[in-house]
Design a protein that fits this description.
Elements (H helix, E strand, L loop, with lengths): L1 H16 L3 E9 L10 E4 L3 E4 L5 E6 L3 E7 L6 E6 L3 E6 L13 H12 L1 H4 L7 E13 L2 H14 L14 E13 L2 E11 L13 H4 L6 E4 L2 E4 L6 H4 E11 L2 E10 L8 E8 L4 E9 L5 E12 L3 E13 L8 E14 L11
Parallel strand pairs: 1-7
Antiparallel strand pairs: 1-4, 2-3, 2-5, 5-6, 8-9, 8-19, 9-10, 11-12, 13-14, 14-15, 15-16, 16-17, 17-18, 18-19
């Protein structure tokens, strides 16, 4: 009997020690509560990962989390220790604005030379014979519910029917869609809308044709933001027009990833962007990026995009989010619009025929 309990004791210890610890977390800004995409998480000083477009991350290990660090440009670093909970919300204080660099550093130039040499290989516009599915979501949200409800009341007085007032955290407009995309080349491609849904508003079906993942192609010479063209930081002439500086690095999937910030050179006059590039050593491709126009006035726009390596050959867009904050809208109400797309079921080298697109 004594031997039985001894064996049971050691078996229990072994079972407990072998259990996998799982941590789900989210990184947000302290005061605005908005999620922080692509924040750099370091666990126990040897495991690196990045948050997704919603500021979320997951980690699983059999080792205890003795140390958790979180960093993101323009935010004060976070440091936690002995994390025992299975969920965590990390709040980061933004303490500075984007600082435009007057010069580029040699390491940043070297990284970008590699990126540009692989530009055509990693450019989704040059891919062919692939299919994928997407989920798309558009929201329009007032910054102040009380001000928005005043506007709704004024409309109710002049329009037939009754417009309902908004509840806290309610969107003024919500539109969702799911679609399938088949792509042979620029002249032969098709998008099929599988399902649509909107929040009580009749939306034309053309609205759901959301090819924005390629409309905001970072590898193009120009990026269109709110109908205006801006020179891409990955354009053929980007090293002549932008300054690039390495601000951080990480090891992801056993590969080096470098984080660069970029902004137009001070002596250049053009419609430019500023932001960050996360460059993966595999094919010297952009894995994540965020960017905003330099000339925001009544509207502040930010584009976020994440790529994924498919079949260890090509980097495809995985998810994209474009956010617009309108400072002066109708009835002086501030609005935030967000367009989110996620790609799944990517199949490259798919046998497609031109005849299929003639049907």
């Amino acid at each position: 009997m004594k031997l039985f309990f001894t064996l049971l004791f050691f078996y229990t210890i072994q079972l407990v020690s072998g259990q996998q610890l799982k941590l789900s977390g989210k990184v947000i800004e302290t005061f605005s509560k908005v999620p922080i995409p692509f924040a750099h998480i370091i666990i126990n000083e040897d495991t690196h990962l990045f948050t997704d477009l919603e500021g979320k991350f997951e980690f699983a290990s059999q080792n205890k989390i003795l140390k958790l660090q979180c960093g993101h440009y323009m935010h004060r670093p976070y440091l936690g220790s002995n994390i025992s909970s299975d969920t965590i919300t990390i709040k980061m204080n933004r303490f500075e604005f984007f600082k435009d660099e007057l010069t580029a550093d040699p390491q940043g130039i070297a990284v970008m030379q590699d990126v540009l040499s692989w530009r055509n290989h990693n450019n989704p516009d040059f891919y062919s014979y692939y299919t994928y599915s997407t989920y798309n979501k558009f929201t329009l949200t007032p910054g102040n519910i009380a001000d928005a409800n005043k506007m709704i009341k004024s409309f109710s007085a002049i329009l037939p029917g009754r417009l309902k007032e908004l509840h806290p955290n309610q969107h003024l407009l919500l539109v969702e869609s799911a679609s399938d995309k088949e792509y042979l080349n620029d002249n032969n491609h098709r998008e099929t809308i599988k399902s649509t849904r909107s929040s009580g508003v009749s939306v034309p079906s053309a609205f759901f044709k959301t090819s924005q993942l390629q409309a905001t192609n970072i590898y193009s010479d120009y990026i269109i933001v709110n109908g205006k063209e801006y020179v891409s930081p990955l354009s053929k002439t980007s090293l002549e027009q932008y300054n690039f500086n390495v601000i951080d690095s990480a090891i992801i999937d056993q590969r080096k990833l470098r984080i660069l910030k970029f902004n137009p050179k001070p002596d250049k006059n053009f419609d430019g962007l500023r932001g960050q590039l996360y460059v993966d050593d595999r094919y010297h491709a952009v894995r994540y990026y965020s960017t905003s126009p330099m000339d925001d006035n009544t509207m502040s726009a930010t584009i976020y995009q994440e790529f994924q390596l498919v079949d260890d050959q090509k980097w495809f867009p995985k998810a994209s989010k474009t956010e617009n904050l309108t400072y002066k809208g109708l009835y002086e109400v501030k609005y935030t619009s967000s367009l989110f797309s996620r790609v799944y079921n990517i199949k490259s080298n798919t046998p497609l025929s031109k005849h299929k697109f003639d049907e």
